[in-house]
Design goal:
Length: 155
C-alpha cells in the first residue's frame, strides 16, 4: 500500500462546490471578476480548494503562455538534498552559457527538484518525464543508481 495522496483537481472542487470546473478555474486564476462570478461563490470555491489541499499544476498553467510555434524545452536539475546548493548553481550557469553560445532562439525553463538520498524514484515525473523533456541528475546513492539502471526513461 502507498500513502500517496490523490491529486485534487478542478473537477473535485467544482463537484463539492456545486459549480462548473470553468468557474473554479476562473476563481483560482483570479479572472472571476471578468466572468462576473459572485463574491459568495468565489469565497466558497477558495474555501473548498483550501480544505481539499488543492495545489495548482504549474506545468499546466505555463501551457497558456507558450506559443505552439515556438519551441519550449523544460530541463530538470534533479539532485539529492545532501548536494551542495552551489552544485545546482554551477549546472544552471553552465546551461545558460551553452545556450547563449549556441545562439538558441527557443525558450526554455529549468525546474529544480530534490530527493532524499536513496529515494530518487519518488521524484514526480521521473519515470514518465511528465514535467520535463530532459534531466541532469546529480548526487545519487548506489540505490538511486540501481533504480536508474533498471528504469526505462523516455527522455
Amino acid at each position: 500500500m502507498t500513502d500517496k495522496k490523490k491529486t485534487v483537481t478542478l473537477k473535485d472542487i467544482a463537484q463539492k462546490a456545486g459549480v462548473s470546473a470553468g468557474a473554479v478555474s476562473f476563481v483560482l486564476t483570479n479572472t472571476h471578476k471578468k466572468r462576473r462570478i459572485s463574491p459568495a461563490t468565489v469565497e466558497k470555491v477558495r474555501k473548498i480548494a483550501a480544505e481539499l489541499g488543492y495545489q495548482p499544476n504549474i506545468a499546466a498553467r505555463n501551457l497558456r503562455f507558450v506559443d505552439p510555434n515556438e519551441p519550449m524545452f523544460v530541463l530538470a536539475i534533479i539532485t539529492s538534498t545532501e548536494s551542495p546548493l552551489t552544485l545546482v548553481g554551477h549546472i544552471f550557469e553552465a546551461l545558460q552559457k551553452r545556450i547563449k553560445e549556441n545562439g538558441e532562439k527557443s525558450r526554455f525553463m529549468i525546474n529544480i527538484a530534490t530527493f532524499e538520498l536513496g529515494d530518487l524514484k519518488s521524484v514526480p515525473g521521473i519515470l514518465d518525464g511528465a514535467f520535463f523533456n530532459g534531466a541532469v541528475i546529480t548526487n545519487t546513492s548506489p540505490a538511486d543508481d540501481e533504480f536508474l539502471r533498471e528504469a526505462k526513461l523516455g527522455y
